[in-house]
Design brief:
It is a single chain. It is built from six helices and eleven strands. The protein has 251 residues and is an alpha/beta fold. It has a single domain, classed as Vaccinia Virus protein VP39 (Rossmann fold, 3-Layer(aba) Sandwich), CATH 3.40.50.150. The chain has a six-stranded mixed beta sheet with strand order 6-5-7-8-11-10, with helices on both faces. Strands 1-2-3-4-9 form a five-stranded antiparallel beta sheet, with no helix packed on it. Helix 5 links the parallel strand 7 and strand 8. The termini are far apart. The model has no long low-confidence stretch (mean pLDDT 94). Bound molecules: zinc ion. The site of zinc ion has 9 residues, from loops.
Amino acid sequence: MLSEIFCPICNTACTPLDVVDFNKSCEEARGKFLQLSGIAVYYYHCDHCGFCFAPEFNQWTLKDFSDKIYNDEYIAIDPDYQEIRPKSNKAVIINFFESNKEHIQHLDWGGGNGLLSQLLQETNWNSLSYDPFFNKETEIKTLGQFNLITAFEVFEHVPDVHQLMLQLDILLKKNGIVLFSTLLSDNKINKNRRLDWWYAAPRNGHISLFSKESLIILAQKYHFNFGSFSSGLHLFFREIPNWAKHLFKVV
Ligand SMILES: [Zn+2]
């Protein structure tokens, strides 16, 4: 019998939702299936806030993740990771903030090999990349503080979201904003023990799946306001800096 697990977002007792093979990957959405690994991964679901997660990854070290997920085969199940996504994310940032870039100190959290920051630097942005798997020797406190932190496709990879929030809090200036992407699970996860959503993919490291409500509760715990531009792009902020006010249209 599986042990009782509590929701890391709202502390409600959770039940197992489904078990999937470790090799379930996001590429299944494009019709590409890996061979089954034979390793079972249990996902739990919180009926209160909608958070869905695979608690066994809490025991994994960074080395475990490097060896078993972010290894040489990772590119095959996330082919957009190296180039396509950094380029499209650059376009998002430019679209939002290019005219105010002189006011912005930007950190790209989870930026992999740093391509997004590099592309921004080439157009005179003050931008830095940090990724726990690429900058293993870097202590977070030595990075400084930033008023724009982006975290594209990061939250769903994190086994301990509170550790991430505490780290972001250290790095964020008082009037800064966190712009992040992760697909909301609302209407994607049903409760009849079928986790067939393509985004729920342990082989991709997608182990924390957020509903809108779970992000709202998470924001409140860290005294942030929460906003969404879409089902995939979101904001945490305390005060809205002048250079970002144009994003908040008063209707
Ligand atoms: Zn919950």
